[in-house]
Design a protein that fits this description.
alpha/beta, Spore Coat Polysaccharide Biosynthesis Protein SpsA, Chain A, 8 helices, 7 strands, globular
Length: 233
């Protein structure tokens, strides 16, 4: 029996991009259920959502990608899904790479599959390497793309992260959380793509700030109690 998979699209002010993102997912994964989580958008997103033919949640104000993912994961857990795939609402994640993430969860029996982009423009690439080195040492596993938000969560990770997904700018801290709670993670090579419209929020300055936050997390996460795993009946 195939697992029930939900694609969670996280979006903040992505009204021009959402129709293209949804169309891309449907073209590549026709039977995949889609949930858009609107992270307090102030553009036309709320008027676009009802016309996409997808399920959607709207947060009352911007709470960050991590909080939006918690909402999506909780929805999935409460509605009987086994796997969640995160896709950002800007178009940078290619829907034809979703199959590789899902295959990695199954074939490698992993809890989390992360799409790693091996072609990222400078100077972001240099900052990525620094952050990746820090996380690789901390997790004792090679981290190639520490800021990738393109990932798939299996049943154990989905249930755990529904209540404990890191908030704010969460991708690097997610890798720390996964290691601390003995969830297995694999990296899957994916192709990078420019966002459909608008400008990316991922800059070298933001990565440096995130590296500082991860350094703080390194002093805290190892001392946190492990999360008690919830087993679904």
């Amino acid at each position: 029996m195939k697992p029930a998979v939900l694609c969670v699209v996280v979006a903040h002010n992505e009204a021009p991009n959402l129709p293209l993102v949804v169309a891309d997912i449907r073209a590549q994964q026709k039977h995949l259920d889609i949930l858009v989580v609107d992270d307090g958008s102030t553009d036309r997103t709320i008027s676009v959502l009802p016309h996409l033919g997808v399920r959607w949640l709207q947060l009352p104000e911007r709470m960050g990608v991590g909080s939006a993912m918690r909402a999506g994961l909780r929805y999935a857990a409460r509605n009987g899904y086994d796997v969640v795939v995160r896709v950002d609402g800007d178009g940078q994640h290619r829907a034809d790479d979703i199959a590789a993430l899902l295959h990695a969860l199954d074939a490698r029996r992993a809890d989390v599959a992360v799409g790693s982009r091996y072609q990222i423009e400078q100077p972001v690439r240099r900052s990525q390497r620094l952050l990746g080195t820090v996380l690789s040492i901390a997790t004792r596993q090679r981290v190639t793309d520490p800021t990738s938000g393109f990932c798939a969560f299996g049943p154990r990770a989905m249930r755990m992260l529904a209540e404990h997904h890191p908030t704010g700018y969460p991708e690097p801290e997610l890798r720390l959380f996964v290691e601390r709670n003995a969830l297995s993670v694999v990296e899957v090579g994916v192709r990078s793509r420019p966002r459909f419209h608008g400008q990316t929020s991922l800059t070298a300055g933001r990565i440096i700030a995130t590296t500082a936050r991860v350094a703080l997390a390194l002093a805290i996460v190892p001392w946190r109690r492990r999360v008690q795993e919830v087993v679904r009946a």
